[in-house]
Write a structure and sequence with these properties.
Low-confidence stretches: 1-8
Bound molecules: flavin-adenine dinucleotide
Mean pLDDT: 92
Radius of gyration: 21 Å
Strand order of the largest sheet: 1-8-7-6-5-4-3-2
Strand content: 5-15%
Structural class: alpha/beta
Number of helices: 17
Distance between the termini: 50 Å
Length: 401
């Protein structure tokens, strides 16, 4: 059943402030806050973040016992645990602040058929974990977790596949279908992450196909639109036309995009025009425009705003008020990553909006690349302390600890 705006009771309207650190850190004990403080202080140090990954990889290769140290520090800040069961505390903790969990199996790198099958099974387990639990309202996966990058890249070029590749591709499609089918059977939405532009045509086709199959009455499958690409706002609008013509609900996770440097470098090296917007302002303008387009069509588009940008969150919240969309409309979710931007997540949840956080999990060694990227994002920018550290200091002062 499509949810009608009128059938969703509007919650009491609470004024939205992203500066309220008491709400942002209500779920964190003093000890949690101190740990986060020392961690972000260390991360703020550019030098440490530059040498850290090399040192950590070396220590792990040498068999030094540093897993415990990583698990108690940076892993604890940004990951839920090594297994789904280990994420239970994080799930409860977030839920106590009105924030949902997206279990994100974050193992990167290995590419063989056994690993792909195992990843498919694990993603299906996240869907089973989410079934019937409002604390885990949405799930997610990456197609490169269940299929070989090189194969997806070849498909993107339109080149014809060998007989063996055709068979391999059928297996990838079957894994994606298994995941989406499971999501459909139990009524738990699943998002497909966006990745590098040179495999994205294939991912988009797959996602659109899954949406057409499973989004007839409720949004089960979401594709991801990377608005740092200059062509993605147009793609979003075009997909909506297709969805309208074929009678399915479009699921759209809106993000700016995570691979900017890599995209620009490849385009330059290979001599094709960069798919990235000319500047940040253009990305911000299109992000707002994409948000506006979705909210204006909210009965037929379900949106997940995956962003740590305060202005983008406020823009969406204001637009919902302006267009009289209830804060808890099932077609609107705000989404951030665990351990970051709690001031956005918990203040939005406190004001009655739907909020979900990615909770990455997996063996410590396998999630290290993810952790290094989070550290990189939180280094000092031109001598300024990172925003996360600033917020933690503010809350420490408020608590007088
Ligand atoms: C819940 C969630 C899910 C996500 N899922 C995905 C995903 O599936 N795929 C994916 O690729 N990323 C994903 N991301 C990451 C996301 O794309 C961004 O990299 C990250 O969130 C930073 O953007 P922002 O909107 O939070 O913040 P901001 O700080 O406002 O924006 C930074 C981003 O702006 C863009 N940008 C910066 N400078 C320029 C420039 N000069 N020109 C053009 N663009 C510029 C880049 O994308 C950069 O990452 C996700 C993020 C979240 C929070």
């Amino acid at each position: 059943m499509l949810t009608n705006e009128n059938s969703v009771p509007a919650p009491e309207r609470v004024t939205l402030s992203f500066e309220n650190t008491e709400i942002a850190f209500r779920h964190a004990s003093n000890a949690d806050l101190q740990r986060a403080y020392w961690l972000f202080k260390a991360i703020n140090n550019n030098f440490l973040v530059k040498v850290g990954p090399g040192m950590t990889n070396f220590a792990i290769k040498m068999g030094l016992p540093i897993k415990g140290l990583i698990k108690a520090t940076i892993f604890k800040q940004f990951c839920g645990g090594e297994t789904i069961a280990e994420c239970d505390n994080t799930i409860k903790n977030l839920h106590s602040g009105g924030v949902g969990t997206i279990l994100d199996y974050s193992v990167e790198g290995e590419e063989d058929e056994k690993v792909f099958d195992h990843t498919r099974d694990e993603i299906i387990r996240t869907i089973e974990r989410a079934t019937g639990d409002p604390a885990v309202p949405i799930t997610v996966f990456k197609v490169t977790g269940v299929g070989r990058f090189g194969l997806l890249e070849k498909l993107d070029t339109g080149a014809s596949l060998t007989a063996a590749e055709i068979e391999e591709w059928q297996k990838v499609q079957a894994r994606v279908l298994d995941i989406c089918q499971k999501a459909f059977q139990v009524g738990v939405p699943v998002m497909i992450d966006a990745e590098e532009s040179w495999i994205q045509i294939t991912l988009d086709k797959l996602a659109l196909d899954m949406m057409q199959r499973f989004n007839q009455y409720k949004c089960i499958v979401y594709n991801t639109y990377q608005i740092y690409r200059h062509d993605k706002l147009a793609d979003l609008k075009q997909d909506f036309e297709k969805a309208t013509a074929k009678g399915f609900i479009l699921g759209a996770k809106l993000v700016r995009g995570a691979y900017m440097e890599k995209e620009r470098k490849r385009a330059q090296e290979m001599g094709y025009p960069s798919p990235i917007q000319p500047d940040k302002q253009s990305a911000d303008r299109d992000y707002n425009e994409a948000t506006r387009f979705c909210v204006r069509n909210i009965e037929r588009i379900a949106i997940v705003a995956g962003t740590h940008n305060e202005d983008s969150c406020r823009f969406l919240a204001d637009l919902m008020n302006e267009l009289n969309v209830p804060h808890n409309h099932p077609h609107v979710y705000f989404s951030q990553l665990l351990g970051m931007s709690d001031n956005l997540s918990f203040n939005l949840a406190n004001a009655g909006y739907n909020v979900v956080k990615y909770v990455p999990y997996g063996p410590v060694k396998a999630v290290l690349p993810y952790l290094f990227r989070r550290a990189q994002e939180n280094t000092a920018i031109a001598g300024q302390m990172s925003r996360e550290l600033g917020l933690i200091i503010k809350e420490k002062q408020r608590r007088k600890i």
